[in-house]
Design a protein that fits this description.
Length: 426
């Protein structure tokens, strides 16, 4: 690894950067996609740090040399000092069709920020990378076991399924902590509570392919543009940072029309179909757009609520691409310890445990319901700050949250629902 030149010595010259750009154009060299900024040269766009690193390798004669400056402002400032244009990256892929499409494209080109101030009083001299407000706190195995209500063996099994398949679905009744666990699994593989590498979406009946993958959307003036959805933008970030994992968390997977939303992702999700070698062209993408692929360092974790009878089951093609982890109610020692630590009385804890055990047994034994409809522990994970309020807190949870759920479970048998609620309130 070469030693970086002293700051007083220029790292690169304009000719060295031009030499790198010519080599990229000549060889058709693939570069990792940029995330926030692009170097614009002769109508083409390049990731600034990748160009700088190639120029640095050519200048030092070392093909393994690493560019000594981080991406963003440090690299952009140097390239701008050599009279190269750095622009902020736009999410719009192409202008809409119609007679005003060419005008829109021209206006976008006029609005392009070049890094060179048109008005020195109004614009900064260079683009600045958005700074990180704080370092992400570390997250360890001990942290996970301290706040999750699953045992160590189950945690290991969930992590093994996620690392093996790259895709994991957490399924279970309501209130079993599926979304809570999904985020903690991501933190464990990240080693930190790093939200910058986690994207959370929730599926619903109106969510579609255009929101998730690629589609036309109107701007403020009612003109339509082709805009990438959540997944391509996250894949772009992950591909530009291949040494670190990225996570897509999908809450309530089965509330959406999954085959329609996923589209090409249904194929590319497979662990052995990742990377550029398996890239596909998206239907709406323009002919000159790069093909889409899912990078190997992207993990997908979804949650499934098994108790919602209005939802369609997942098809077998989708199921084959995921590892599944079943979660159930956890009325065990961890919840008991948490409640006791908040000074909830032993008698009230025993009442809670006894009533919920009896209710869940009744639900599990009902032929029209079953174990998928049992009620989870997360309803009781936020006890009141003042211990004297605990009895009223528990009563209101039974009346306002669990009671209506039971009325829905036994909507054809209201007397049964009312009887079960009365048992909880005794």
């Amino acid at each position: 690894m070469p030693v970086a030149p002293a700051e007083s010595t220029p790292l690169l010259t304009r000719e060295q950067v031009l030499r790198a750009l010519r080599q990229i154009a000549r060889e058709g060299r693939p570069l990792p996609p940029s995330t926030v900024y692009e170097l614009v040269y002769r109508g083409r766009r390049y990731p600034p740090r990748a160009v700088a690193e190639l120029a640095y390798r050519l200048a030092t004669g070392n093909p393994a040399a690493r560019w000594p400056r981080p991406a963003g402002a440090p690299t952009n400032a140097l390239l701008e000092s050599l009279d190269f244009t750095i622009s902020t990256k736009r999410p719009v892929l192409t202008s809409g069709s119609g007679p005003d499409g060419e005008e829109v494209a021209h206006q976008q080109a006029e609005d392009l920020y070049t890094g060179l101030a048109k008005n020195a009083d109004a614009l900064p001299a260079h683009v600045a990378e958005p700074g990180t407000a704080y370092a992400a706190p570390a997250y360890t195995r001990a942290d996970a076991l301290a706040e999750l209500f699953i045992n160590e063996a189950d945690l290991d099994a969930a992590l093994a399924g996620l690392t093996r398949r790259r895709n994991l679905l957490l399924q279970g009744p309501p209130g079993t902590g599926k979304t809570f666990l999904a985020r903690r699994l991501a933190w464990l593989l990240l080693g930190a509570q790093d939200e910058s590498r986690i994207e959370l979406v929730q599926f619903h009946p109106s969510y579609g392919y255009e929101d998730f993958m690629l589609g036309f959307r109107p701007d403020a003036k009612g003109r339509f543009h082709l805009v990438p959805g959540v997944l391509p933008l996250l894949c772009q970030r992950a591909a530009a940072d291949p040494s670190r994992p990225y996570f897509l968390l999908i809450d309530e997977v089965n509330r959406g029309n999954v085959p329609r939303i996923f589209g090409e992702l249904l194929l590319l999700l497979e662990a052995d179909k990742r990377g550029p070698a398996h890239a596909l062209r998206l239907p709406y993408a323009p002919p000159d757009a790069p093909k889409f692929f899912v990078p190997d360092n992207l993990y997908v974790i979804g949650t499934l609520n098994l108790a919602d009878r209005s939802l369609s089951p997942l098809d077998y093609a989708l199921r084959r691409r995921f590892a599944f982890v079943a979660l159930g109610p956890q009325f065990g020692a961890p919840l008991r310890q948490q409640l006791a630590a908040r000074q909830i009385s032993t008698d009230l804890i025993e009442r809670l445990y006894t009533h919920m055990a009896a209710l869940n047994q009744t639900i599990a034994d009902d032929p029209e319901l079953g174990p998928d409809f049992e009620i989870g522990h997360s309803y009781f994970c936020q006890p009141p700050a003042r211990p004297e309020q605990a009895s009223e807190w528990l009563r209101l949870i039974f009346e306002q949250e669990i009671g209506p759920l039971l009325a829905d479970y036994w909507r054809e048998q209201p007397a049964t629902a009312a009887a079960q609620l009365r048992k909880l309130l005794v």
